[in-house]
Amino acid sequence: MRNDVRRLRGELALSQGALGDALGVSRQTINAIETGRYLPSLPLAIGLARYFQTTVEELFHPDPGDVRC
Amino acid sequence: MLNVKSFCSSTRGLVTFGAVLILAVFLAFALGGDWSGAVISSVILIAFLAVVAVGRRHSDTLNVMSGLGDERSRHLYLRASAFAGTVMAFVIPAWWLVTVAQGKPNTTLNLLAAIFGLSFIFASAVLARRS
User: Fold this and answer.
1) Which residues in chain A have their CB less than 8 angstroms from residue B72's CB?
2) What is the CA B49 to chain-centroid distance, rounded?
3) ipTM score of the complex?
4) Within an 8 Å CB–CB cutoff, is residue A44 touching chain B?
């Protein structure tokens, strides 16, 4: 599962720590999400999407085979 | 009113559970008359608790070990617990089989295997209803 979190964060010149603080998670969690090592819960994914004023589907891009329909 | 879930995932909860564990270990050794064992075990547990409670702010590994932190930490803590449980699910029956093969079946291992199996069935039933 790829995502645009790093790109959008870069556009806002935000640090991982600052984004984590805004969403109530740690810097390590933001890093793990950006590198694809951790899939956030649905509430956190929605929180990320709202923070970047986009939708979850525009923020996260499943790999082929991840989604069946 | 005390929120059990948030208490369990707070530093206060971690310290409280640690203190109860330390007290239980100390009392068990003391009741057995082994005062030096009581003191040594308590000191080791206190040191371990202090390392986890203080070090978790500086180490991601200790943070996961504490079971506190954000959703990723708690998620990893659950996975680590599941891994440790899976290891024990193989070790306990295997150890018991060794004692059976030696002609001296260990009744403590029988009991541990039974408790493990029943806990797993109970948790599966409860989680299946709730989730």
Assistant:
1) 25-26, 28-29, 32, 38, 40
2) 13
3) 0.84
4) yes
